[in-house]
Amino acid sequence: MGLDYEPNPFEVDHATLRARFLALQRLVHPDRWAAKSPVKGDIAARVSETVNTINSHLSNPVSRTLYILEQEGVTGDTESILDDPTIVMEVMEARESLEEAQTEEEVETIRLENKEKFDEAQRELSGLIASKAWNDAAAAATRLKYLQSIEHAARAWPERLFDH
Amino acid sequence: MFRSTIAKSVLNASPRAHTLASVRPALARGYHEKVISHYEKPRNVGSLPKNDADVGTGLVGAPACGDVMKLQIRVDEKGIISDVKFKTFGCGSAIASSSYMTERVMGLSLEDAEKIKNTEIAKELCLPPVKLHCSMLAEDAIRSAIRDYRTKRGKLSASDASKSGFIEVSQSAVTGETTATAHPPSA
Asked: GO BP, one example (chain A) (predicted)?
């Protein structure tokens, strides 16, 4: 996408990303190529899909961090269990209060609180990535991911979030 | 105990098989009916008062998928799990694993409960390889609850050791191995 990896790959200029994404999609739009030949249309469809995937990975701070950590050779152990009671308790409490919430206002309050935590966690993560503290960044990314799951649950309310 | 639990959950699961069509499509497609049974009718959902001296709380999460699980046990004087509750926010397999675990540990001694392996849960619920971590989460949750209970008892009894006896629990900083030593009442 032509974005700078240095000095801090976490900081993405969203306007630039958006502009590059749209320009690329215009270039590889399948309709444009399908008119020339079906084969070219198929190739364009695949490229277009890839561009979509890259764009959504870069736009989201959690997947962006996972990508950066992967680039840096820090691969998260997918089997690992988190027993840091502070984070688990924080998430459990937020999810429970969402479950017990009766009104949209209550949900909105939880959401705003979570948004503040999320923004703060993002700033912290950005700092850790800038100073190349990869292990701490991985831990911060885990918390960010959990805070994001609270946001997803709040958005799904009053439906129960069915993650996967 | 084990056999009767299994028999019970199979009995619970089988009459539901023909109602699968009513289950949300995403679930019906990917999950085994035992998982769906526990997901739709989770056993022992809820909370126990975490400040009670005879309650141990286990709190664990799986960073890979963002699941969180709380498992609480109440332990009677004989060291038997007399009540158990769980709350899980996560996928169907994580909910089913913890639900199954609560049925499995009810009435067991702490020693027997901590011996339960995730492979047993995975086998019972027919979890596919990608969902094995859900059963590991349940195994970790019960161990964490037992650990919490023992730490609590240790602290409580240390202040009152002469009368009631206590269990000393220590964890090695190097190996992470937890050891528990029973100190029965002196007289």
From this structure: protein complex oligomerization
Among B59, B50, B137, CA closest to A83: B59
> In b/e form, how buried is each residue of A89-109, taking b as 16+ CB within 10 angstroms?
ebbbebbeebeebeeeeebee
Asked if A85 is an interface residue toward chain B (Cβ–Cβ < 8 A), one would say: yes
CA within 13 Å, CB half, A10: 24
Which residues of chain B does A162 touch, with a Cβ-Cβ cutoff of 8 Å? 24, 26-27, 91-92
Domain A85-163: homologous superfamily in CATH:
HscB, C-terminal domain (1.20.1280.20)
CA atoms within 13 A on the CB side of A35: 4
Provide φ and ψ at B59, rounded to 5°.
-125, 115
B35, B47, B50, B89, best to mutate vs chain A, most A CBs in 10 Å: B89
Amino acid at A150: I
Q: Where are the domains of chain B?
A: 33-148
Measured from the Cβ of residue A163, the count of other Cβ atoms closer than 10 Å reads 16
CA closest to A140 among chain B residues? B63
Of the candidate ranges A59-68, A115-124, B153-162, the one whose mean pLDDT is the lowest: B153-162
Q: Would the CA dihedral through B159, B164, B165, B166 be positive or negative?
A: negative
Q: Cα separation of A45 and A24, whole Å? A: 12
Q: How far apart are CA A162 and CA B109, in angstroms?
A: 34
Is there a contact between B141 and B70 (Cβ–Cβ < 8 Å)? yes
Q: What angle do CA B89, B90, B93 make, to 5 degrees?
A: 125
Convert the pLDDT of each residue in B34-84 to its tens digit.
888 888 888 899 999 999 999 999 999 988 778 899 999 999 999 999 999
**Which positions of chain B have pLDDT values less than 70?**
1-30, 158-164, 186-187
Architecture of the domain spanning B33-148: Alpha-Beta Complex (3.90)
Q: Are strands B55-62 and B67-75 parallel, antiparallel or unpaired?
A: antiparallel
B64 touches A: beta carbon within 8 Å: yes
